Amino acid sequence: MPQQSATDDEPEPIPARRRVVLSDGTVVPVSLDEAKVREVVYTFYRAVRADPVIGPIFEDAIAPDDWPRHLGVMVGFWSSMLLGTRTYDGRPMPKHIQLPGLDDVHFAIWLKLFRDTVAEVCEPEVAALFVDRAERVAHSFRLGLAYFRGRDTTTVERMEAAKL
C-alpha cells in the first residue's frame, strides 16, 4: 500500500514529544506540552488580573502594553520548569522584592488561583505537577522576601494549595 502524501485527507503524524524527567525524578506526563503550558499561563493571568486583591499589584507592576511580553516570559518560565525547554533565563526575585507590602496573603491568593486554573484546564496528573511546582515557587519567593526583609527564614513554612 502506498504511503499517504501530505495532500491526502489524513494529516501527517505529529512527532512524539521527547520524554521529560525532572531533576527530582518526576516523569512529566506526555499530555503536558507547550500548548497546555500556554493555556495555563493565559488562563491563570486572566484570573489574576481580575482578582480584587492581587490584580492591582500586577497591574501596577506591569504596564498595559507590556502584558504580552510578560505572558511570553511566564510561558517560558513554566515551560523551562516542566518541559526542560530552557526558554527562560531570568531572575525574578529582584522584581518581587521591589513590590511593597507583598506578603503571605498575596501568595495564598496566587496559589489558590493557580490551583483553580490547573484544575479547570488540566487533567489531574498534570494539574498536580503544576500545583507542586507552584507551591515550590511560592515557598522560594516567601523565603527570599523573608531573608531580604531580615526576618527569620526558619519560620517560613511551605503553603499547600489544597489547604487554601
UniProtKB/TrEMBL annotation:
<keyword id="KW-0813">Transport</keyword>
<keyword id="KW-0408">Iron</keyword>
<dbReference type="GO" id="GO:0046872">
    <property type="term" value="F:metal ion binding"/>
</dbReference>
<dbReference type="InterPro" id="IPR001486">
    <property type="entry name" value="Hemoglobin_trunc"/>
</dbReference>
<feature type="binding site" description="distal binding residue">
    <location>
        <position position="139"/>
    </location>
    <ligand>
        <name>heme</name>
    </ligand>
</feature>
<dbReference type="GO" id="GO:0019825">
    <property type="term" value="F:oxygen binding"/>
</dbReference>
<protein>
    <submittedName>
        <fullName>Group III truncated hemoglobin</fullName>
    </submittedName>
</protein>
<keyword id="KW-0349">Heme</keyword>
<dbReference type="InterPro" id="IPR012292">
    <property type="entry name" value="Globin/Proto"/>
</dbReference>
<dbReference type="InterPro" id="IPR009050">
    <property type="entry name" value="Globin-like_sf"/>
</dbReference>
<dbReference type="Pfam" id="PF01152">
    <property type="entry name" value="Bac_globin"/>
</dbReference>
<keyword id="KW-0479">Metal-binding</keyword>
<dbReference type="GO" id="GO:0020037">
    <property type="term" value="F:heme binding"/>
</dbReference>
